[in-house]
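Sharing a chain and its predicted structure for anyone who wants a worked example. Both blocks are below, sequence first, tokens second.
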Amino acid sequence: MRLILILFAVILFLIPFIVPEGYLYIVGLSFLFAIAVASWDLMVGYTGKVNLGHTVFIGIGGYTAAVLQRALNPPVYLTIPIGGLVASVLGFLIGLITLRLRGYYFALVTAILPLVFMQTVFIWSDIFGGEEGFSIGVENALSQTTVGKYYITTILMLASISVMIYIVDSKLGVKFKAIREDEDLAESLGIDTTKYKIIAFVISSFFAGITGSAIVHYRITVGPDLYDVPLMLLIILSAVIGGLGTIYGPVLCGVLIYLSKNWWLKEIIELAGLPVNDEIILYSILILVGIFLPGGIFEALKRSTTKLKNILGKR
């Protein structure tokens, strides 16, 4: 595993020397998207509570960073964590009210949240820029070069994913999994399920907020697309195909699916002259994975690796 991680780090370092600058910009954004997917998986994959309003926290983080930048012009390295903190506070307040709900009610409530917060952008357009959003200025970008942005997003992704993996592998993560497997049994064992669901929700919201803040500084604009339902669907698609409750799978598929939607598939469709769009192909893949690989690609790879080891061990 250590050798694989070293090889992965080397590949990430070398990408700017291989990929043209225009496409490198998309690769950097895919790393930020991967953080959002992993943070959604931390809540849904490890507690079993389906959050359909994750883009609310991405949007809150993004707009917090943008408004702060325009009003006070603080350093970039301050607005990104502040965006995460504001999103986590909102996550705490929403979680305190909604995470006592059982069944599908929590999912239904969270599904409405992006629509509510998107309306605030239109109502207070003088603050949030309305439908078009606003720019925070080139001088407030993550870096003045595409390569610089790429390396910053790479570090941010690796740091965020490392923290999330540490959390889910800790005693706290064990309690999350206990809630996922059987909430009633977890309660009977003395676990305060509401408390730990709120903790998971707050952590998930924090990393979503960081994602939104970083995206704003990456592309130097903010807009209501950060609250979009299509963005939420893409996050769900990536996490489910990758494998819920694994972190690694959603991160890998988050990068691959983002690149497919914004780069590879468009070129393939154009070259082949196919009468479909990228979303039809991506959602068809989701259906196929749901039928043939219900645990996701990462779990399928783990099972295949285990079988291969067993076969080699017998020999």
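Comments welcome. The chain has 14 helices and two strands.
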